[in-house]
Amino acid sequence: MTTEKKPLRSSRSYGPKDKDGFIHRSWMKSQGLPPDVFDGRPVIGICNTWSELTPCNAGLRDLAEHVKRGVWEAGGLPLEFPAMSLGETQMRPTAMLFRNLLAMEVEESIRGNPIDAVVLLGGCDKTTPGQLMGAASVDLPTIVVSSGPMLNGKFRGCDIGSGTDVWKFSEAVRAGKMSLDDFMAAESGMSRTPGTCMTMGSASTMACLMEAMGIALPYNATAPAVDARRRRIAHESGRLIVQMARNDLRLSKILTRPAFENAIRVLGAIGGSTNAVLHLLAIAGRLSVPLELAEFDRLTADIPLLVNLQPSGRFLMEDLHYAGGLPAVLKELVPFLHVDAPTVWGQTLGQSIGSAECFNHEVIRTLTEPVNAVAGIWVMSGNLCPDGAVVKPSAASQALFSHRGRAVVFESIEDLHSRIDDPALDVDANSVLVLKGCGPKGYPGMPEVGNMPLPRKLLELGVQDMLRISDARMSGTAFGTVVLHVAPEAEAGGPLAMVRNGDEILFDGPNRRLELLVKPEDLAARTEAWKNSRPPPKYSRGYYQLYVQHVTQANQGCDLDFLSGASGSTVDRESH
Questions:
Q1: Could you tell me the residue range of the domain that residue 469 belongs to?
Q2: Can you spell out the DSSP letters for 404-418?
Q3: pLDDT digits (tens, 9 = 90+) for 316-327
Q4: CA distances from 80 to 16, 83, 249, 460, 492 (A)
Q5: Residue 32 maps to a domain
Q6: What pLDDT shows up at residue 2?
Q7: Are both 449 and 400 inside the same structural domain?
Q8: DSSP assignments along 254-299, one per residue
Q9: Which of 7, 264, 387, 435 is 20 to 30 A (C-alpha) from 295?
Q10: 36-50 b/e with 16+ CB inside 10 Å = b?
Q11: Overall number of domains in the chain
């Protein structure tokens, strides 16, 4: 019995022997393409976020060429197109503000052009989720090729990690324990090659989750950016995407509910970034896969920390790759995974990791001897966060898991910067640092400032961690006892906006409670006064205004409300 193949999407543009077909083919032939490439070959879009302003993605120009080799080899037509590049270390006010803009651009570029499938080339923190959100709303065959982590940083004979050691060195300078000259000397040794942070930051976390969800080839997450194996993965992805186009293997067939559950459990095992919570919620929303914030806690509650990487551990991504990469982690995690989940390369997830091995159990631990029995994502509830907040316990101090202290409040990031090192600041080691105005609407864009610097006078006394609470995000490379993503945010009138200096706050991590110890009637009175004192909107034009008016809260993934769901791949009207 034979099954008739579905016509290629690109054939509508390149197939007709009429005026419209003439226009589509003729202008493409101006690039030197021979006539036969339009005779039924799958057209593969290569969505590239390469940019010299995004050092993490600086190697993607080269990787695109290797993808093209694979596409040509498999009988496809590769056509590269650019997408907005979001450099986490460079963009102001925060790259997260523009994740949804990238998603819109990618969605419309894919839908509007005559392509049959797409390869997403990304890496830096917001590029991978932004691209995937856009692609999910079109739902063509899709595969991810990541830029890969940079090599380990080196300083005075020791490995140092992106972000994680920046925070440590900075605090050491402020505490008078490291000279400014030494701090500056470490700068050149930290970022030695192109690629993403080699700690388990947001970029490495998302690359791991793409692999765990079956939409990026094995070892895509860990092969260093400058390793030849990264180019091989790109080449093989180019071959595979042609077959996916012919088989009409769409993204929605892979990114099912079990794939999201696998990703969340892997997130816990690798000590992944809390940013992944926002991204997975947003991606699920594009695919209409049911997923709620509370499930990140439920699905990771029994998952120990298996990967011994900064900031929750000791090693770096290069070490993880040599130890066996993500396949070795997945194999150890099998009892918790949906091993029958499909992958873009045709095997189930379980089949694909059958031969995986671990070569260094210091880097990849076992379920019986984990790095830390307490891992995953804590999702808090209580009157200070009615719609939730998140904590990464593997990067926190166990001594602060249950804590009660008085609030030291900063109304904005500028307020924090101006007062945090003031010797007169009324703060002690038991205080709770509270930062407002850094949520999706408030900043805008929800920056990575939740891991607030500790007051200098406490650092000088040897204090190394304090409970910190905000509506902001935190870099995946950061650490500390930090409550993040408080929802609703202060700018939206959440209870966080009502916190005052001296208020007592109760944090009960094991029981997931975050309470502002203020009488309900007093909180209601503060809320009413807050509503009556609101200033006019800050933004009156452009993307900022659009974003602030339509962005959802952290517990919903911070997507724009009108982008939830999908519009599909069909465009009915011709352009001529």
A1: 378-536
A2: EEEEEEESSHHHHHH
A3: 999 999 999 999
A4: 23, 10, 20, 53, 41
A5: no
A6: 42
A7: yes
A8: HS-HHHHHHHHHHHHHHT--THHHHHHHHHHHHHT----THHHHHH
A9: 435
A10: ebbeebbbbbbbbbb
A11: 2
